[in-house]
Structure formats: C-alpha cells, structure tokens
Amino acid sequence: MFKVLSRPFIAPSLLAMAIGCAPAQAQTPAEPAAKTIEPGVDASIKPGDDFFAFANGAWLKANDIPAGKPRLIVRDELATLTRAQVVKLVDDASTAPAGSTGRKVADFRAAWLNEAAIEAKGTTPIKPMLDRIDRVNDKRALTKLLGSGVRADADPMNLAVYRSAHLIGLAVQPSIHGEKNYAAFLLQGGLGLPSREHYLSADPAMRAARTRYQEAIASVLMTAGFDHAPSASQRAEAVMALETAIAQSHATHEVSDNERNADNQWTRADFARQAPGMDWPEFFAAAGVARQVSFVAWQPSAMKGAAALIGSQPLQTWKDYLRVRVIATYADVLPHAFADQALALRGEGAVGQRQAPRAERATDVTLLAMSEAIGNLYAERHFTAAHKARVQTILANVNAAFSRRVEAVTWMSAESKAVALAKLKAMYFGLGYPEKWKGMSDLAMDPTDAVGNVQRLSERQYRQTLSRLGKPVDHTEWSIAPQLIGGVLMFQQNSYNFSAALMQLSKFDLAASDAANYGAIGAIIGHEMSHTVDTLGAEYEVNGRARRWWTPEDIARHMAASAPLASQYNGYQPLPDVAVNGKQTLNENTADLCGLNSAFDAYRATLGDKVHDKAYVHQQDRQFFIAFARSWRGKYREEALRKQLATDNHAPENYRIATVRNLDAWYEAFNVLPGQQLYLEPAARVRIW
Question: For a FRET experiment, which of 79, 543, 640, 682 has its CA 20 to 30 Å from that of 417?
Fold first, then answer.
C-alpha cells in the first residue's frame, strides 16, 4: 500500500541547487570511506538522503549557473560543447577540396562575409525578383507569382512548425490515418512579425513592435526607390494593414497545435468553393503541384482569408507587400542600407538594440541554412561507427527488456499487449544520423553570391519536398539534424530520431562501462520507447493511424497503477511555497521510471556469468545508478525553477533523479535504510511497467 510522506521531501542540496547556491553540508557524520569511492561523488552525503547531491558532488561544487542564464543542465552543457564542435567544423571546411560538402559549407559562410562583393552588387541580385513583381498587372498574375513563391518551410507533424515565411507554405509528410503515401499540407504564413499576436495584441510591447516594423517597411521602400506617389510612409501603412488582415485570418497557435487539423482534407474543387477570390488552379500550377488531387488545409481560415484578400485588396498594396517580403528575406546579404534594417524587418529587438557582429551572424546563418551538410560532417567526426554500434546494442537490449515488461504487466489487456509489442518490434529508432544521406552533388555554392546561395538552397529543398508527393512513406526519414541536441518521436512513422549531439557526456561515453551507459543513454532510450505504447502512443497504431487502441479498462487500470507516482512527486517541494505537480508531470515521470527499469533489466542481462559475483554486481549497479543521476544533473535560478514547475510537463531535472527510490536494486547498491529521506517501504515503491 502506498505510504504518503508525513512531510514534503526536500533534499537540502536540491533546494540550494535550485536557487543557484552552494550545496548544503550534511548535518550527520559521514559514513566511513569505502575502499573505492566513485570519482565525483560526495561521500559526506548519504545516497539515501540526497542521491542527486551524492552522485553529482564534484560537479555541483565546480559549476555555477553562467551569468545571465536561467539554469545549467546537461543539455546546456551539451549545447556549449556542440556549438564549439560545429563552429570548428565550419572553420576547418575552408580548406576542404573544391566541390566537397565541407567546401560548400565554407563557401556559403564566405559569401555572407564577403561584404565587398555584397556592396558592389547592390540590389542587382534581387532585381529579377523585383522586376517580376513590377510586371504583375492583374490578380491572375499575382496569383501565379504567389504560387511560384511557395516553399517547404513548415513542419506540422514533427517539429510543430505551423507557419511559413510565404503567404502559403507546403509540407509533404505522413498524415494521421495510416496512409501509405505522403500527404500534402498547406499552411498559413506571410507575416513579417514573429506571430499573429504581434499584429493583434493590445500589449504595449506589441504596439511598439508594430510601430518599429512599419517604420522599417517605409525605410526599405524608400531606400529601394519605391517612394514616389503614394509616399513610402503611405505604402508602409497599407502594407501593415494588409499583413494585419492576413494575421486576423490566421489560426492561433493553440488551434494550429492539433494533429486533427490533418482531417481538413480539401480537394481542388473545395478550394474554389470554400476559399473564393483566388484562381487556385493557377496557384497550384505555379507551385508545381498541378497534379495533386487533395491537400490538408491545416488552417482553413487562413486559406479562406488569403484568397479573399487577393480578391479584395488593391494590386498596388500586394505588390508593395511582396517587395518588402523579398527585401526582408535577403536584407542581411544586401548592402548596409538594407542589412541595418534586417532586425526591424523581422520584428525583432528593441529600440537601440544592435545586430550581433557580422561574423557571428554569418556562422549562425550557416549552421541553420547548411544544417544538412554540417550534419554529415558532424557525424563523420563526432559519432563514429563504434559509437553507433555501441548504442545500437544498448537499444536492442533495452527494447527486448521493455518488451518483456510489457508482456508481464497485469493492467493491460491481451489485445492491447499485442499491439504494444508489435509497435516495439516494428519501431525504427534512428541513432546519431540518417541511414541515407541526400548528398550535396546537386547544390552549387558560390563564395561571391550570397543571395544566389540562399535561393539555391530554398529551391533545392522545395524540389526534394515535391519529389516525395505520391511516394510511399519512408519510416527511416529523419526530422532532426545530427548536430541538434535532442530527439523527435514521430507517431505517424512509428519512429524516433535520436541525434548524435545528444549522445555525449554525460548522456553517453564511449569509454565508460556498459553499466554506466545503460544507466545514462539506456534509460533515456527506454523512456522514449515507453512513449510509443503509453498514454501518448496509445493514440496511434503500428501503421501510424490515429486511433486509440488502449481499452477503457486499460486506461482505468493504468490510472490506478500510476496514481501513487503522482502522489510521490506531489511530495517534492523545491521551494517553500511550491511543490512539483505530480499530475502535470505524471506522463514523463512514468516514462522515466519505465526507462530506468528497462535499462536496468537490459544491463543486468549483459552480465552473463558475472551476475553471480556479488561484489562485481554491487560495483556495477552503483555505476548504473550514478550515471543515471549524472545524466539529469542541473542547477536552476529561482525564477526559472518557478516557471518550470508552473508550465512544464517534466519535473525539474534534479527531481527526475529521485525515481531511483522505486527500484529495489538501488537500495541494495547504496545501503539505503529506513529513516533516510528517500527511503520507501517496498510496498510503496511504484511499479507500473
């Protein structure tokens, strides 16, 4: 029976670390030192009182939250490390052979830094685009121009990118009903300011942003020579009014963030009927999708709004709007007169804020624009075949261990177990980098043509996107670059992409023991696997179709099994007036517990005959749990901690570690006894999977 704590559990050093102070000293005498103390632990702290502070003692003493930062967690450390790695990759690429992937990366940045060439060319690189706008003399020509400008810069199903830089954006992705072929999605876009709310909110800061943005529009129109009657300020006012009208037709983020928007299936006839005002056949032909029979209109209101505005707004206003969008897109690689306005044209910054140094911006843009190429270089240097093979072995063993746990649970029906096991067996778990690289042979980069480089990248991406239309879904397709720290769970593909950059210290260490790596990366892998069949994955079948396969009885029994874990986390109080919300964080806490259990089972299964050597097993078990604790170490400032407790469905990193108290082996490994703060009676230890 679950035992409610008589008072909230507050580990002294957890609270101190939460607000960025030095760790509290233990008030009880330290236990005698063992013959071998794991490097980095604080032996003065009993693991059963504060396992986080015990396991991370040296790190806590050696690291402070950087000035101006809200926290310091492992992902922040990895971000700093990875940034240095990729910047060096770009620096080193300057000596790569001509035509190589590395050289193309270097040439992209070199063009960005080639201010002499940019100034000498003036607006010549964008003149063909501006001339084409000048030639628009009716709404049919306007529609064709808008169609030809469609780009694949939205991603509703994987990365939650629900808007395009263009009036309408395209995505080609798996949909939610188990379709065997890719579906075409159309999404809202075309705003210069960062969000719909920037146009519509009465907040003073938003009002100020609108004023700066409209002034920037007038400035660039004047600089570009569009200051004849009507004046640039009048034109800017009209453009702002048009963008505001576009924003009014846009769905909110909350409405957009709903996968059931994929049910908004429109045929070509539906567009003409439901969104009059635009010549949709002309639009589709210009966009290269003339043969596409149906589309997902992710935000129908935006499709209707765009079409109505094309029909109702003056042609001159549309032309000025398009001129501004062209200049805004390329402002950073145009002469200083435009580049200095780039920040304001993106609706970023405040009065008096300056752009970052050009060298820094050039690197940032290169890392973003050339992400695919840099990912190839990154994987070659920082995630070797040995790394991948080691993690693949861990993955396979954790999958097998978790599958055994699924078979053994008593709260899930036999029918549901069959689906869960089928999903785990069929799941593609991409490690490090894609199995297939797209290659760079079709991409030309010119160190003297910054505008052209951006155009060629955009057009190439669009061609690749269009090429997937009508093709079978590739379940091994990646949605995250290897050098980006994180992973993406794609229910429609029954797959997970786990980036190379995430698999570094202290998440993974090629030189570490199996026990340590199962405790760190193995537990994370198990966590993500559990999501494929838990309350999240229960909404998707093996083929990716959105349909709940858990029975009502499964749900009820799962709620009963997990309720004690919610209560356990309710008992954690990082701040005197704020506790962890056990219900809000339950799904992630359940996945943490499942991942840790499955990884522990998998690690123990690797011991073979050594499992009978009690001293060896004891030592390895300690490594497993310490590595788990170090993979979630962190410090928070109070403001950041309060925000996470209020809004995040993950418990603070420090408290995620406390799930060890639900595993019997942890008690044995660290001699955790009744009376210590983390001790739970065996009957109170939560067991879900």
Answer: 682
DSSP strand pairing (634-636 vs 487-490): unpaired
Contact 561, 594 (CB under 8 A): no
Both tokens assigned to 25 = 């000293």
Alpha helices in 467-613 (DSSP H): 514-517, 523-531, 552-570, 586-605
Q: Is the pLDDT of residue 15 over 60?
A: no
Q: Contact at 8 Å (CB) between 48 and 676?
A: yes
Residue 209: the pLDDT is 93
385-392 mean pLDDT: 96
Residues in the chain: 689
**Omega into 230 within 30° of 0, i.e. cis?**
yes
The one-letter amino acid at 644: Q
Which of 300, 434, 418 lies closest to 372, judged by CA?
434
Average pLDDT over residues 95-118: 97
Tokens 């969104």, located at residue: 275
Q: What is the pLDDT of residues 445-483, one digit of tens each?
A: 999 999 999 999 999 999 999 999 999 999 999 999 999
The end-to-end CA distance of the chain, in Å, is 17
Residues 291 and 102: their CA atoms lie apart, in Å, by 37
Residue in 96, 87, 152, 164 with CA at minimum distance from that of residue 445:
96
**Mean pLDDT across 298-308:** 98
**Structural tokens at position 201:** 């909110």
Q: 178 and 543 in contact (C-beta within 8 Å)?
A: yes
* Beta-strand relationship, 168-173 and 265-267: unpaired
The CA distance from 165 to 152, in Å, is 10
634 by DSSP, 3-state: which? strand
pLDDT at 350: 56
CB atoms within 10 A of CB 250: 26
Q: What is the pLDDT of residue 348?
A: 77
**Angle at CA of residue 264, ends 262 and 265, nearest 5°:** 95
**Cα Rg of the chain, angstroms:** 28
Q: Respond yes or no on whether the N-terminal peptide bond of residue 66 is cis (omega within 30° of 0).
A: no
Contacts (Cβ under 8 Å, ≥6 apart) of 373? 101, 102, 104, 105, 440, 443
| Residues sharing a CB contact under 8 Å with residue 540, sequence separation 6 or more, in sequence order | 491, 492, 494, 546, 547
Identify the CA nearest to 502 among candidates 155, 154, 74, 72: 74
CA 109 → CA 112, 119, 360, 375, 455, distances in Å?
5, 16, 10, 16, 14
Q: What is the torsion angle, in degrees rounded to the nearest 10, for the CA atoms of residue 575, residue 563, residue 604 and residue 496?
A: -80
Structure tokens at 229: 């009657």
Q: How many CB atoms lie within 10 A of CB 233?
A: 16
Averaged pLDDT, 285-291: 98
Which segments of 99-220 are extended strands (E)? 168-173, 183-188
Query: Which of 172, 14, 36 lies closest to 623, judged by CA?
Result: 36
Q: Would strands 294-297 and 487-490 be described as parallel, antiparallel, or unpaired?
A: unpaired
Q: Are 130 and 323 in contact (CB under 8 A)?
A: yes
Strand segments, DSSP code E, in 433-580 are 487-490, 495-499
Per-residue pLDDT reduced to its tens digit, 361-384:
999 999 999 999 999 999 999 999
List, in sequence order, every residue forming a beta bridge with 267; answer none if it has no partner: 294
- The pLDDT of residue 8 is 35
On average, the pLDDT of the chain sits at: 93
